[in-house]
Specification:
Layout lengths: L1 E5 L3 E7 L17 E6 L1 H11 L3 E9 L2 H12 L6 E6 L4 E6 L7 E6 L5
């Protein structure tokens, strides 16, 4: 199949916390509890379709910054064309997700969309 997907691509950082509400600590060491990757609904759909062997035309906007370069590299590595990925933003959108370990799966998302709205 062939898909046209237009949507958000951003850099997402996940932080495992002890529990909600978050208690104050001047510093914490969540060993192997912080990870950063390329994400966003548009990218996630494009990557899933590509993994399933579909042809994808992906459209989005990234920043003229190091995070935008990171996204471009990831798209290239995953065989997702950047023909319609426009480097128009000063800064790439980013998000931080706090998540609580365990079956509950509670999380809190902070999404900084920069100037794409």
């Amino acid at each position: 199949m062939k898909f046209f997907i237009s949507g958000l691509v951003n850099v997402e950082t996940n932080l495992r916390i002890r529990s909600f509400p978050v208690a104050y600590y001047p510093i914490d060491y969540p060993f192997f509890g912080i990870n950063s990757s390329i994400s966003g609904v548009g990218y996630n759909l494009a990557a899933a379709a590509r993994t399933l062997g579909d042809e994808v035309i992906f459209s989005s906007m990234i920043g003229k910054d190091v995070e935008g370069q990171r996204i471009a590299k990831t798209l290239d590595e995953n065989g997702i064309s950047r023909n319609y990925v426009f480097e128009e933003l000063e800064s790439t959108p980013v998000s931080i997700i706090l998540y609580e370990p365990g079956a509950d799966g509670r999380r809190q998302i902070y999404c900084d969309l920069k100037d794409i709205q």
